Amino acid sequence: MAPILATHELTKRFGDVLAVDDLTFSVAPGEIFGFLGGNGAGKTTTLRMVLDIIRPTSGRIEVMGQAPDHRNASSIGFLPEERGLYSKMSAIDTIVYFARLKDMDARPAREYGMELLGRFDLADRATSKIGDMSKGMAQKVQLATALVNRPPLLLLDEPFSGLDPVNQGLLEEEILRASREGAAVIFSTHVMQHAERLCDRLLLLKRGSKRFEGTLAEARAQLPGRIETIAKPGIEQVEGVAKATRRDEPAHEGWHHYDLVLEPGRNAGDVLEACTARSVPLRRFDEAQPSLHEVFVRLVGDEEIER
């Protein structure tokens, strides 16, 4: 299946500042792709190049097989990090206006715009002016402008910023809906919990350079495996265990809590088999998967992130 979006050795310099460094990735139809990095990592710069707002210093971008320009602009839905709508226009007129810019007829735009406002619990505010709405309401209207023409490529730049938990859940539902309908969805964020719940694949950026690309399982595999156990002494010498830390409080007489870090290439099954072979008594044996936050800190380092 041909990708909706592909970049090839994409590089962008602003004078002496290297904002994006030799970045190559692709996103398939129906895929939710997390574009993760701290502040200044190059996420927004990359999205602006995809939108043809700024041009690369070198490298190529393909949107549905073509270089980005006015011919495929209507195929992209974009929610910018910096929100901005016309304050004196009504919600529904704003949605229709943006739909018309994307070559959509007014009548179907108004019909689907009203459907979107209904899903966003804003049907009764359809004729309200943007300037009279709360920040969260206006942000949902702006999301509707990105979705109204059902674009095959949806770019969301820090979309969860400023939304309360209820509206964050609503946005997650819309991302999943767009994916089910076949759109390629790319969203940038430095909030790991959303990426952990939604993404089929992830790309981790630091200072414009790719540090990792792959699935969540592949990201977690970048860190050594860990196991939480209740066992008797002797588990420290089991094959496959790189480090065993015994907690201060005993679990029971003769039994102790151990936190195990596994050797590279080893998994929980290897260690359990070794415990059986050595007749090490076990009362608890739980694999502890690293969070995406932990993976990010290990691979990206001191970038600013949120849990």
UniProtKB/TrEMBL annotation:
Q: Which SMART domains match?
A: AAA
List each copy of the ABC transporter domain by range.
Answer: 5-232
What the entry lists under Pfam families is as follows:
ABC_tran, DrrA1-3_C
Recall the GO molecular function terms of this protein's record: ATP binding; ATP hydrolysis activity
Q: Which UniProt keywords apply?
A: ATP-binding, Nodulation, Nucleotide-binding, Transport
What InterPro entries does its record include? AAA+_ATPase, ABC_transporter-like_ATP-bd, ABC_transporter-like_CS, ABC_transporter_ATP-binding, DrrA1/2-like_C, P-loop_NTPase
Q: Quote the PANTHER family the UniProt record gives.
A: ABC TRANSPORTER ATP-BINDING PROTEIN, ABC TRANSPORTER ATP-BINDING PROTEIN NATA
Name the family the entry cites. Belongs to the ABC transporter superfamily.
Q: How is this protein named in the record?
A: ATP-binding cassette domain-containing protein
